[in-house]
From TrEMBL:
It comes from Kangiella geojedonensis. Its EC number is 2.7.2.3. Belongs to the phosphoglycerate kinase family. This is Phosphoglycerate kinase. One of its GO terms (biological process) is gluconeogenesis. It comes from the Bacteria. Substrate binds at residues 19-21, 34, 57-60, 111, 144. Its main location: cytoplasm. Pathway: Carbohydrate degradation; glycolysis; pyruvate from D-glyceraldehyde 3-phosphate: step 2/5. Monomer. (2R)-3-phosphoglycerate binds at residues 34, 111, 144.
Amino acid sequence: VLRMSDLDLKGKRVLIREDLNVPVKDGKITSDVRIQASLPTIKLALEKGAKVMVMSHRGRPTEGVLTEKDSMQLIADYLDDLLDAPVRLVSEYLDGVDIEQGEVVVFENVRCNVGEKANDERLSKMYAELCDVFVNDAFGTAHRAQASTHGVAKFAPIACAGPLLAGELEALGKALDNPARPMVAIVGGSKVSTKLTVLESLSTVVDQLIVGGGIANTFIAATDKPVGKSLCEEDLIPEAKRLIEQAHAKGGEIPVPVDVVTGKEFAEDAAAETKSVDEVAEDDMIFDIGPQSAEHLAEVLKDAKTIVWNGPVGVFEFDQFGAGTEAISKAIAESDAFSIAGGGDTLAAVDKYGIKDKVSYISTGGGAFLEFLEGKELPAVAILEERAK
Ligand code: 3PG
């Protein structure tokens, strides 16, 4: 693909699609990872003398309606604090924007435009007409074929990848295409069903696939152990069995926890009990892997040369069920493997256990990160490749 960093942007109208869809609680941004990651791109465009326009979606609003909770205002304000250049939010931009060199114009939520999600051609052409160069830098939204990610790239005079998108593709490619071995993937989170494809595709490339969180419960059940009242997808037990066998057949392994931390209720003050995986009672819920399992996984991670991490292995937001995820975090931090972490909950864990600077690459993608791991084509990247031909 064409790269923004290789282009002359002096005096050009440059429209940058970022993914600034950040988590917000009580009117405050709770993780600015995506905003921080977009800064080098915006600064580079300014340095190159471009007239900079930035667009992003926020949340999943109803098209045609803009309410305060969906507004890009607080994100524009946040950018204004971080950049030396003045930042201005515009809500009417589809018919043209007046913009001075040296300022940054942020568009209101693109998902409030009718036709955005359907990748409408008319809307895509309107975006395209606003610019001389379209830059897609939104890795987090690269799995969506929408007007601001895909359609606009089709019709813009020039369409290229921004430094963030290019960097993500390079780092993920490095981990997956020709990984240094042993390669270990950690897939946690609550449900097998949402991660079945990623488990499937990773189990064929990695040497060890570590499952955690609710996902591990289904695997524990697949080895005929009791899981009590834990989150467990009965209907996927055969799939879990098949994945375990498939990994064995390829000389790999999916280690199932040997001990767990349980509670009687899902609550911040629930009492935690550590027990062998054989001793889980009927009214127990498994909320974390136990210390013996954590130690084993830490050993596995110590020898790894490539690590891919998506999803915590326990309910780490409650401290008494966080030791497993903390042990994994520490092991990744101490390992000299090329490590990649991605996904909202994973980044929250990375933050909580202070290993941000110890992970080789932190991806800004949630769904896009998973789809990349699944080996799927990302439509917003595919169109850039097509344009580069
Ligand atoms: C994300 O947060 O994963 C991206 O911003 C994409 O959001 P979406 O799932 O609403 O398309």
